[in-house]
């Protein structure tokens, strides 16, 4: 019974703060009824609930309280120790009993209407699907704040392979420069084996319209695509990644020095590539999904 389970969970967490007699009074039930429930024979369903609860608490801690009911359910059903499929209603109930909820601010959604002007330059045309690794890449820079009072800023640039939304490379710099953009792509090409004819999408920031950046991509026979002026939704895949990165990771960090900030950024990129799973890629991590395409089913 949900009421008794909630009483038991609170009492187990802190017996001094939540004595049974007070919990019984608050719930308007008798202590005898609670203890009768407690002494009942443990059923298979009780054992399953206990196992799922342990998994929920572990996942909540591992993912820094980022998981809501939907994603928590996905992770639970990927666990080989869980012998049957668990529905979201059970997960919601157990999360409620444990006092666990996603501790993230509301994500922003950009609903800017697009303008059909400049469509010739926007080769990507908001088609962010890719059938294989290294077909389509997206790139962008964002600003992050750090310091004792968040008084310092840095620029984080990244290249994302749209196949599985895998972060190929990132670069941290004090300002947005063409050199930073080129360095990010140097790492991306090196990691991916220097593929040819990749469709590369960016906005029209100064770093991406510079001669140095355009010449670098030209030497790699890359196809260019750029967002139309005033339409950030043309690079929605990067906008979403930055928003998720900040909401689920960066907002929960506090780096006092530049060195600490870089370390936290690397840990965050590793989290999104190696740990965070997504239903859009069949419950895999981006690295698993990418490796299955590259190595024919093997995942590193």
The overall pLDDT average reads 87
Gyration radius, rounded? 24 Å
CATH topology of the largest domain: Nucleotidyltransferase, domain 5
- Indicate the overall shape: elongated
Protein name: IS3 family transposase
Function: Involved in the transposition of the insertion sequence.
Domain Integrase catalytic: 129-294
Pfam family, one: rve
Write a concise synopsis of the structure shown.
The chain is 46% helix and 12% strand. The chain has 300 residues and is α/β, with parallel strands linked by helices. Strand 1 and strand 2 (152-161) form a beta hairpin.
Q: What does the secondary structure layout of this molecule look like, with pairings?
A:
Layout lengths: L1 H12 L6 H8 L3 H8 L5 H19 L6 H10 L9 H11 L37 E11 L5 E10 L4 E8 L4 H15 L6 E4 L3 H4 L1 H9 L3 E4 L9 H13 L9 H18 L10 H10 L5
Parallel strand pairs: 1-4, 4-5
Antiparallel strand pairs: 1-2, 2-3
Helix pairs in contact: 1-2, 1-6, 4-6, 5-6
Organism: Weissella fermenti
Protein name: IS3 family transposase
Function: Involved in the transposition of the insertion sequence.
Question: Explain this structure to me?
Answer:
This is IS3 family transposase. It holds the Pfam family rve. Residues 129-294 form the Integrase catalytic domain. Involved in the transposition of the insertion sequence. InterPro entries: HTH-like_dom, Integrase_cat-core, RNaseH-like_sf, RNaseH_sf, Transpos_IS3, Transposase_IS3/IS150/IS904. This protein is α/β, with parallel strands linked by helices and 300 residues long. It has 2 domains: 2-98, no CATH class; 136-295, Nucleotidyltransferase, domain 5 (2-Layer Sandwich), CATH 3.30.420. Helices cover 46% and strands 12% of the residues. It has 12 helices and 5 strands. The protein has a 5-stranded mixed sheet with strand order 3-2-1-4-5. Strand 2 (152-161) and strand 3 form a beta hairpin. The longest helix has 19 residues, at 44-62. The radius of gyration is 24 Å and the shape is elongated. The two termini are 43 Å apart. Mean pLDDT is 87; it is low at 110-120.
């Amino acid at each position: 019974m949900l009421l008794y389970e909630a009483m038991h969970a609170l009492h187990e967490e802190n017996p001094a703060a939540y004595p049974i007699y007070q919990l019984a009074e608050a719930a308007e039930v008798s202590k005898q009824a609670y203890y009768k429930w407690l002494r009942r024979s443990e059923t298979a369903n009780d054992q399953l609930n206990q196992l799922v609860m342990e998994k929920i608490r572990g996942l909540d801690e591992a993912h820094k309280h980022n998981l809501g009911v939907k994603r928590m359910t996905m992770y639970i059903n990927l666990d080989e120790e869980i012998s049957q499929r668990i529905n979201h209603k059970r997960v919601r109930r157990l999360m409620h009993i444990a006092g666990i909820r996603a501790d993230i601010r509301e994500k922003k959604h950009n609903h800017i209407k697009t303008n059909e002007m400049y469509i010739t330059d926007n080769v990507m045309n908001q088609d962010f699907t890719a059938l294989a690794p290294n077909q389509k890449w997206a790139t962008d820079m964002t600003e992050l704040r750090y310091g004792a009072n968040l008084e310092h800023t840095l620029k984080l640039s990244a290249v994302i392979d749209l196949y599985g939304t895998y972060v190929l490379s990132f670069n941290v710099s004090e300002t947005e420069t063409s050199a930073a953009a080129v360095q990010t792509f140097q790492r991306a090409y090196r990691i991916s084996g220097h593929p040819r004819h990749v469709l590369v999408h960016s906005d029209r920031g100064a770093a991406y319209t510079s001669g140095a950046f355009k010449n670098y991509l030209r030497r790699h026979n890359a196809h260019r695509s750029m967002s139309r002026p005033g339409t950030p939704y043309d690079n929605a895949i990067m906008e979403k990644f930055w928003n998720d990165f900040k909401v689920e990771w960066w907002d929960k960090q506090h780096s006092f020095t530049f060195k600490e900030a870089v370390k936290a950024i690397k840990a965050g990129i590793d989290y999104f590539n190696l740990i965070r799973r997504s239903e859009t890629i069949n419950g895999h991590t981006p690295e698993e999904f990418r490796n299955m395409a590259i190595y024919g089913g093997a995942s590193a």
